[in-house]
Amino acid sequence: MSTSLLIVQILNGLQLGVLLFLIAAGLTLVFGVMDFINLAHGVQYMLGAYLAVMFYALTGNFLIALVLALAAALVFGLLLEFTVFRHLYDRDHLEQVIATFGIILFLNQGVKVVWGAAPLNLPIPEIFSGTVVLMQGILYPVWRLVIIGSGLAVGLILYILVSHTRVGMLVRAGATNARIVSALGVDIRRLFMIVFGFGTMLAAFAGVMIAPILSVEPGMGDSVLILAFVVIVIGGIGSMRGAFIAALLIGLVDTLGRSFAIDILRLVMPPSPARTVGPAIASMLIYVLMALVLYFRPAGLFPARGR
Prior knowledge:
- By secondary structure, this protein is an all-alpha fold.
- α1 (about 5-35) runs parallel beside α6 (about 165-185), α2 packs parallel to α4 and α2 crosses α7 (about 190-210).
- A two-stranded antiparallel ribbon has the order 1-2.
- About 75% of the residues lie in helices and about 5% in strands.
């Protein structure tokens, strides 16, 4: 276990954490405020990546592609909310799960029809395409640092919006008790629409930022959705602070576990069994963490007040 590898993997863990936060932030708001289980949230992440690839091909400018992709993702998300999701708000959770799972299947096939099944790529902006020297012998891609910085900046903006604005006050109140907020005269459906649209843009932004690193392909949002649900369970449903801390924690645990599990096991067992057992244990670490949190704090680390 070298110090240089540890530093690189910590940065990779932070990168994964901020991406999970961008996805989980919208998901925890939708679940916390609307009590709506949206399994299709991951496809907004996928659509953000595909839209960025499409708009980049049309404009040749990453920033313009980012803005257009976020705007298109917002419009598409609001269209889904208006035509499908708002009819599910008063249904039970099982019906919401089944309906939104059907949307996953439909949209995964839809992107195959529109863009094909082959993986696509989005170029890294030229200004951020190099590497930086963290210390002697350690180079790190600039774009990964941009992702970390962007995620932290979005987290700060969300904190200000949720904690110090009227809409944020309503969102926090809705996460605590949406029925009382509605009884006080607040247009709860409009609040739901704002929350849903904002969550859609956050997920799409995560998809755009990761597109230059990973292949853009159908179903790319499915696996990350599972991690996002783990984030909101650990952090606490409806809690933005909980989502942020839990996302960073999961990113670090998952990345460091996959990188160093074998080395750690070699301290207590022979190398051959360590190579066999290490990857299996590493893949379970975040779920073990979730189980421990649920055992000691069933409502999560930082649950919204009233939950």
